[in-house]
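Translate structure to sequence.
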């Protein structure tokens, strides 16, 4: 290719630095051109660290002036839709963080704008890109496990509130609590592994047990003892699928458990598998005996592949592993879950989300 892809980022927070800037900076066909944040002082420090010459307070100015090919949207959740749509309307491909939006309607607005623009939108679902998930999905798609009748999934933390009183705990900015934050990874992963099946009904409960304290913040997240905390810190649910299979899920930012755990456990009629804290194990049978198989996977392509994948898709018109349409599907399920938890009754899905 003749020139490098011109890259910008909006929302220079933790995720922007740890994930997007660090990884896009490693790609030889990408030029880090500009970043934007309402906190200019912080953004300027980050720009210096990554040798980025332009810093904008206003993302619209950056998009209008910099002729970008890609932007990452790494702001608080409620801003994802408007910023992504603005970028698409100006001919820019968007790598938007999870959750795609704060509800399915907002996510659908993004898909509509994407379709009109002819550009690409990929969601930052890094847990779909791990070697363990990619290998497990391949195995599931071959039918190796027989009929998958159940998945247990979740991410439970003992002390992991991402800052009590920050935007994460404010419903109008985050859209919800731990389910929209961590469920956007592991409920998504379960559904993705199953091939985004049609949901039938959902039920569950949310809890607010640690809203009064900053003692259960995630390490390094100070928070604000006087800030708003009006979202759930735990969520548990049960999703029934049209094909009779089920997904049981649990998420907590804080709970009185022994230790943090991420998990997805796949139960099939001929075998099973689990990814627990990132490690994949397969449960099978050999000569009438139950066996565990541990695939030997190459760890070192994690993360980088998400960024290469997106740039390659832009350059070669390729398919995306985490397209915007999947965000509409997930947010519809999350919307239904919050309704079910609110009325304390199961809620049935009355429409099919068409993925195109
Ligand atoms: N994929 C992952 O593993 C992962 C991990 C963490 C966070 N995230 C997602 O990334 C996003 C950001 O999370 P974070 O932890 O980095 O939050 P953060 O609070 O650290 O960063 C958000 C940044 O956005 C800036 N911002 C706010 N309004 C803005 C505006 N109008 N224009 C430009 N910048 C603006 C803030 O000043 C801040 O610097 C969230 O959607 C979150 O869900 C994803």
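Result:
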């Amino acid at each position: 290719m003749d020139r490098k892809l011109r890259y910008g980022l909006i929302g220079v927070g933790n995720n922007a630095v740890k994930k997007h800037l660090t990884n896009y900076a490693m790609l030889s066909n990408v030029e880090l051109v500009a970043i934007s944040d309402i906190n200019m002082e912080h953004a300027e420090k980050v720009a210096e660290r990554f040798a980025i010459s332009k810093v904008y307070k206003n993302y619209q100015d950056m998009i209008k002036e910099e002729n970008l090919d890609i932007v990452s949207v790494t702001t608080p959740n409620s801003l994802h839709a408007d910023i992504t749509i603005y970028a698409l309307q100006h001919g820019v491909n968007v790598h938007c963080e999870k959750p795609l939006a704060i509800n399915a309607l907002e996510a659908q607005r993004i898909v509509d704008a994407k379709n009109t623009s002819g550009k690409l939108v990929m969601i930052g679902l890094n847990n779909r890109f791990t070697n363990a998930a990619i290998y497990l999905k391949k195995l599931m798609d071959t039918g190796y496990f027989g009929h998958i009748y159940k998945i247990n999934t979740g991410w439970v933390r003992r002390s992991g509130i991402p800052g009590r009183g920050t935007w994460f705990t404010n419903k109008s900015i985050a859209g919800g609590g731990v389910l929209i934050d961590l469920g956007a990874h592991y409920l998504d992963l379960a559904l993705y592994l199953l091939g985004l099946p049609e949901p039938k009904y959902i039920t569950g409960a949310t809890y607010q047990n640690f809203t009064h304290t900053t003692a259960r913040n995630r390490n390094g997240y100070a928070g604000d003892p006087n800030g708003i905390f009006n979202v759930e810190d735990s969520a548990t649910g049960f999703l029934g699928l049209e094909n009779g299979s089920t997904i049981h899920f649990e998420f907590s930012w804080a709970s009185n458990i022994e230790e943090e755990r991420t998990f997805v456990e796949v139960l099939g009629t001929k075998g099973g598998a689990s990814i627990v804290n990132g490690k994949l194990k397969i449960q099978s049978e050999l000569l009438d005996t139950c066996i565990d198989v541990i695939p030997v996977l190459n760890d070192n392509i994690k993360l980088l592949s998400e960024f290469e994948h997106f740039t390659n898709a832009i350059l070669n018109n390729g398919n995306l592993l985490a397209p915007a349409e999947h965000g509409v599907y997930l947010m519809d399920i999350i919307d239904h879950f919050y309704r079910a938890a609110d009325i304390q009754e199961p809620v049935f899905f009355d429409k099919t989300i068409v993925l195109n």
